[in-house]
Amino acid sequence: MASPTEDTKLHSLEAHNALLEWVQKHGGYISDAVCVAQDDQRGVHLHVRADWPTSVSSETRVVNTPLGVTMSYFNAIDYTSPKGSFSSHGVQFPRAFIDAAGLEETMTFFLMAHFLRGEQSFWHPYLRTLPQPGQLTTPLFFGEEDVDWLQGTGIPDASVQRYQAWDEQYDSSIEKLEAAGYQGAEEFTWELYLWAWTIISSRAFSAKVLSSAVESSDLPDEGISVLLPLIDLPNHRPLAKVEWRAGEEDVGMIVLENVSPGEEIANNYGPRNNEQLLMNYGFCLPNNPTDYRIVKLNVSSDSPLGIAKAHQIQLFPQVAKNTDDHYYIFNVSYPLLAPEGPMEHAIISPALFNALTIMEANERERKRVEIQESGISIQKAYGNSRSTLAALSQICLELIAHILQLRGSAQDLPAQPANLKQIFAQIYRKGQITLDQTALIIASWTLARAREHQRGEQWEDVKVLLHEHLSKVPAGYFPEEVMSRTRVRILERQSLVLKNGELFRLAELFSLLPQELQAPTQKYFMTRVANGPWATDPQIMFALAINFLVATALSDEVRPLLSPRLTRWVDFLVAEYPLPTNAAEEEESPAQQLLRVLSKDRAGFLKLATQDGVFWLGENSHWLAPAWLQWACTVGDGERVLIPVEPLQVLVSEEPTMAKQAVLYVPQDE
After folding, report:
1. Measuring CA to CA, which residue among 513, 27, 519 is closest to residue 230?
2. CA angle, 87 as apex, 207 and 224 as ends, to 5°?
3. CA-to-CA distance for 82 and 216, rounded, in angstroms?
4. Do the beta carbons of residue 639 and residue 664 sit within 8 Å?
5. In this structure, what is the dihedral angle of CA atoms 648, 653, 655, 657, given to the nearest 10 degrees?
6. Which of 181, 388, 609, 612 could form a disulfide with 617, with the two C-beta atoms 3.0–4.6 Å apart?
7. Are 591 and 539 in contact (CB under 8 A)?
8. How far apart are CA 648 and CA 644, in angstroms?
9. pLDDT for 235-292, tens place per residue?
10. Rounded Cα–Cα distance for residues 348 and 334 (Å)
11. Domain residue limits, the chain
12. Where are the beta strands (DSSP E) in 524-576?
């Protein structure tokens, strides 16, 4: 790609027209409808002539690059076969160096060698149009002040890793070149090596384009990159419909869509996010539709997820070859999603979401982990949406933290970027924040539904609730296109959580009881039970509430009055969590110890229950029985979810509270 640079001389229209003439001289071709052009926004590029009478139609071959002007490893070795040959054009490396250095390093040094030959190089008309050493804009070429614009992102660390890897490769290859007795090895400087590697990694094509001229036995699956003069000139446009077709004597660029007069003919590097574009190509796209953020999870081998991954590799050894975890947060406009799928997967990749559900799952949910070659997940079943909601909560917290990190690292930056590198870094940074913010709106929407106990789930109910949710976004905060796409993302697909109202604050739990039982329960629980030193401890209070509801649901006297939702939930908990027997006091947590002390006043609490109209909690009930209190504490620890209180506060405040609250998960039938 010929992206704009701060130097126009070497990237001038004149130099590129000379390149075109050179390619044509060697049998290349450019459609009469197409010309090389240049402007401030797009730099040197291809477009359909403005005065061309018709559109360039789909399936038109707009550019041909002859195989004779391509550059690859095969040129470096003067490759010859019955199918074709490639000349080194005067650069000869010792065979000992080529064998020791390998495919990629040989190509890198071959490119450097021809650059050093200057006008004497066969490829000079091509090489002079490339960004020159010192003009590249990938992060490895950023100065100290430029790097400041990347602080808080993952790029500085990634750049250091790449720099160190290339530095080690360079040192090793130079030693091999000198050991092979090559004269002039000192001219292959580190700066030139860095340039050559960047050119190859940003512009090269797969060796498959040479398949017609190279024996299949000589064509490895990877390791050989091919530079294609002229074909690599068009700018990148996400989702541009193009194809490269290898012929017997050339490689053609085919447009697969109609292109009108005056419109640019763009290349398509694939669905690259802005981080990949900046790291590999040295530019970013504002509002990149294929933008996404890679999320790193620190997964220890002895964690539930680490154990599940190890088991997956045992069952499916080929999985170990895939080193990419596919943990992504997607841009709200990301166009390449699976045609069908849950709403949450429109912003959180299935692999990341499933990984987080396992990390956030409680012990009973982990018993239902499904391990397949395609992935690891929690089985869909009654009671398992708790892990989904817990995962969404963690995603919200991570998004908020990342937004604050990006904001904080930008506080001391100048008001405006000073050069092209800083402009691209600013585009990248702003894109990351917008991506996080829109993902937060969508992730917190499902949590908002989980906290909604009053409204139904009909279309009108959803619209009202969504309006209330989106009203927390300040007016004009995002362009209307972004807000519209966010609404569409929420409404176009079904959520992973099919029912509202599965997360309860403590006082809300008693709304699960029938109306006639709620008043005496609230009076008794809030004025009698919650009146003690334990009242400020959420762990104890939730344990008491669970114990109360279970004792109520297991009472023959009132069970017929209760909702199927409550009785099913209680029966489910009793089946899933075994009642403790002879638990040693020294093994108890502080909360369990306090509950044991509280149970010693059981007789008094039972008497007060009768006085307050909670008549069903008698001596034979499970209420405040020591074993059942310990059991309820275990259940509460497993079934609670910690969620952010006001996740969208980060949109209106520079210093949001980051407050969290404990809620209890009570599933609904799905």
Report:
1. 27
2. 20
3. 12
4. yes
5. -40
6. 609
7. yes
8. 9
9. 999 999 999 999 889 999 999 999 999 999 999 999 999 999 999 999 999 999 999 9
10. 11
11. 294-500, 503-644
12. none
